[in-house]
Amino acid sequence: MAPFLPTDSRRVMAIRRLVGFAVLPVVGGLAPLVAVPAVAARFGAEGWRDVAVGQSIGAAAAVVVELGWGISGPQRSARQSLGNLRRSVGLALVTQVLVLLPVTAGVWVVAHLVPVGAPALVGWIGTAGALGSVNVVWCWIGLGRPGPILWADTLPRTLPVVVAAVALAAGAPLWVFPLALVVSGLVPVVLGTTLLGIGPATLRQLTPRLVVRAVRIQLQPLLGRVLSATYISVPITLAGVSAPGAVAVFAAADRLQRWALTALKALPTALQGWVGGPADPDRRIRRAWVALWGNVGVGVLVGAGFVVVVPAVSRGFFAGVATVAPDLAVLSGLLVVVVTTSRATGGLVLVALRGVPAITLSAAAGCLVGVPGVLVLARVDGARGAMLGVLSAEAAVLAVQVVAVVVLDRRRRRRVRRATSVLRVAHVRVDDPAYPRNARVRHHLRAAGFTVDVVRRHRGGSVIGRMTRDVRTVLGLRGYDVHLLAEMSLVVAPLVALVARLRGGVVVVDRFVGQYETDIDDHGLAAPRSLRALRCRVVDRLAERSADVLLIDTEVRAAALRERVPARTAVVSLPVGAPAWAGPAAVPPAEAGAMAVSRAGAAADVAAGAAAGAGAGAAAEAGTLPSGRAAAASGPLRVLFYGHDVPLHGVPVIVSALGEVGRPVRATFVSYASVLERIRAQLHDEGDRVDATLLEPVPAEELATVIANHDVVLGVFGTSDKARSVIPNKVWQGLACGRTVITAASPALAELRPLVGPQLVEVPPGDAEALAGALRAVVDGPVLSDGPWVGTAERLEAYAAARHARFAALLRQRCAARAGA
Questions:
Q1: Which of 14, 342, 380, 511, by CA, is between 20 and 30 Å from 248?
Q2: Between β-strands 637-642 and 570-573, what pairing exists: parallel, antiparallel or unpaired?
Q3: pTM of the predicted model, to two decimals?
Q4: In this structure, is the dihedral angle defined by the CA atoms of residues 80, 81, 87 and 90, taken in order, positive or negative?
Q5: From CA 418, how far away is CA 487, in angstroms rounded?
Q6: How far, rounded to the nearest angstrom, does the alpha carbon of residue 380 sit from its chain's CA centroid?
């Protein structure tokens, strides 16, 4: 709702978010320091040294356990739906817990190698520090919501430490402190997952393959964080090795400086969601530059203040056992400025420029400079030398990032100039930008180097008003090299073609949905010889002749179009394909039931189908019956249909076939309420022979789960010309989800047969007995238990991507030819 608020209201909301993100890190960063005065006063310099070393080891371990989600997560979560966000957060927590176990063992090894007074105490503090990185804070950052961070993270982390500080001041042993840290690490995880609604259902969707893939993806940002930890979190430990006597003072300066940097992190943290919010990359980059200069200015101010106040603050805060000298404070203030700047160049600008590898490279530079710098300079000049080593490391990091930003921004500008000079596409009159076909075409065009802008179809008002606004929009299209008319917009194709040709552009018409086949064939809104039917034919023909390039969904339909369009018009078949949610990752085996994967037994299944009846025999002659499953072992065969009750889909054929199967079958129909009423009437005519469930439509992301809970997906069984020439969405989706798909045989399916083999079962169109026989063959087949068909989604996606690549290449040629003309 924010874009529709008055400007003042949006500004107030932004200020509130910024204040929230400024206060919360200060409080959260202060929490571990609350007990420091009590530790220093009661246990002296040695006690403070052990606590500081444990915190240093824990901070380094926390970087590894965090797995880089703090870098890549916020900008990603700013654009995700709630369902995808829950899966992402659940995936992050699972991967972090898996990494936590071996990292904890490493913490204890290091704690016993470093010269400290109480290795066990150091080990527990380090373990608590590693546990503290398992959280969902990055999710709330990306969403721009500081409130949940306060109640579910900051307060639960702060209160146990405050209690420990009081207990220490009252005479409790030092072990109270690590115990409080462990509690403050566990409680926020429970509260955060509860607020987000992450439960067992979410975690069941996280297959081992998905977890492994997520870890691999996070290795890039993780590597950078691990390298940076060696010069950010480990210097106290390194100084303890080279100059044990300087650790208390150096740790005091480092803790206060890190606390200031934690507070300053509020600005880039609050701006991550703002920078990553726009879908347009150029807007994200412009915002990243604004955020960079804002961080630089704030860093300079805070660094100067740090130099003035730290000597006095350290004297009182550490009870006189670790006072920071003015020269050490100056070095710390410079470090604050450098780190504040590098946080923005790396976490904001380089992420927006997709230069995450450069962040890793800069961290490597900091590691190479910082580790030997701290070790050598601490031995030479104690605390001041250690701080110089850290400052040199951060300066090296910033230098590498600045060079990377300059190089990547120059490359981006060259790409933009090259794209905008030739390859600008206007996707015209788009009704739903998220519609799979629309989104897929734009995705592949952008991947091929085109810049694609969406021009929405006008909604609301009278027909004349909408058409007037559409005409005004089309006439206003300027500077585009390609005018791509979206499906279901054929009526304005002549106007789009006129405007495009007057301005030297290429005209592409998506003929995926024709007026005649939709209004007359599918919905029967008028007789074939009526005036309305004539108008639909005229709209279709004018659209076809207006295009330089015609898009269609199957080779069968493409061949028919090529026979009636001018030779200058290229006809390209772009498959419907399966959306991103349709795939093996969306089909948890635990929910999928015992499905067939006995591929070697496919021939035997065909023979079994032939013996099952005449209908099954007809399908068996086509050689397409897959492995089935034993009803006795797996319960009733679960069959799914979703769609409309139009002649193309052949719902009466499905209902009749279900009544003739004669085997345990449980059917599910998913459609609109009006359609379900007609289906319910048809089921009533079959009596109690059909066990059926009727569901209203579900969101796309939930449809994957519906498919996963069934064994067979039913396609279309109509007898129209359209039914013989199309491959419906549900066929692509069912195959990609690893389900057996039964549909009417058609020439169009020739494209898929080599890719899916026996997973696709074809029966004669409109033949209920053949469909019933095919279902019996699946029920009576051998027992299957290894999960859904595998590899299909990848093959289908590769096939669709290859077709889109051919279209992009053709479009590039047409643009070059038009520019040359």
A1: 342
A2: unpaired
A3: 0.47
A4: positive
A5: 28
A6: 49
User: Does the structure show a pLDDT above 70 at 25?
Assistant: no
**Would you put residue 382 in left (φ > 0), alpha (ψ -120 to 50) or beta?**
left
User: Can you read off the two tokens belonging to residue 395?
Assistant: 């300066």
pLDDT of amino acid 13? 54
Give the pLDDT of residue 748.
92
Q: What is the pLDDT of residues 294-339, one digit of tens each?
A: 888 888 998 898 888 888 888 777 777 778 888 888 998 999 999 9
**Segments in 197-276 forming alpha helices (H):** 200-204, 208-232, 235-242, 247-264, 266-276
Helix (H, G, I), strand (E, B) or coil at 732: helix
pLDDT of residue 799: 93
- Mean pLDDT of all residues in 459-464: 79
CA–CA distance, 694 with 81 (Å, rounded to integer):
27
d(CA 750, CA 674): 34
Closest CA to 794 of 519, 652, 582, 611: 582
Question: What are the tokens at 182?
Answer: 């462990």
For residues 144-166, give the mean pLDDT. Answer: 82
The CA distance from 170 to 450, in Å, is 68
What 3-state class would DSSP assign to 552? strand
Torsion angle (degrees, nearest 10) of CA 442, 814, 748, 754? -80
From the list 752, 764, 707, 704, the residue with the least C-alpha distance to 726 is 752
Give residue 799's Cα distance to chain centre.
23
Q: Which residue has the tokens 């009533």?
A: 684
The per-residue pLDDT of the chain, averaged, comes to 80
The position carrying tokens 């692509």 is: 732
Q: What residues contact residue 151 under an 8 Å CB cut-off, 6+ apart?
A: 191
Which has the closest alpha carbon to 75: 224, 265, 287, 228?
287
Give 809's contacts (C-beta < 8 A, 6+ positions apart): 448
Place of tokens 């220490």: 168
> In sequence order, which residues have a C-beta less than 8 Å from that of residue 202 and are 6 or more positions away?
86, 87, 90
Residue with token string 């040359």: 820
pLDDT at residue 698 is higher than 80: yes
Written as six digits, the tokens of 592 are 């999928």
Nearest-5° Cα angle at 735, 584 to 768: 140
Letter string b/e over residues 85-98, b meaning 16 or more CB atoms within 10 A of that residue's CB:
bbbbbbbbbbbbee
Residue spans of beta strands (DSSP E) within 603-726? 637-642, 665-670, 691-695, 712-714
- Tens-digit pLDDT profile for residues 33-76: 667 777 877 888 788 788 888 888 888 888 788 877 776 667 66
Paired tokens of 406: 């300059």
Task: Give the Cα separation of 465 and 467 in Å (integer).
Answer: 5
Instruction: Reply yes or no on whether the pLDDT at 409 is more than 90.
Output: no
Give per-residue pLDDT as tens, 435-455: 888 888 999 999 888 989 999
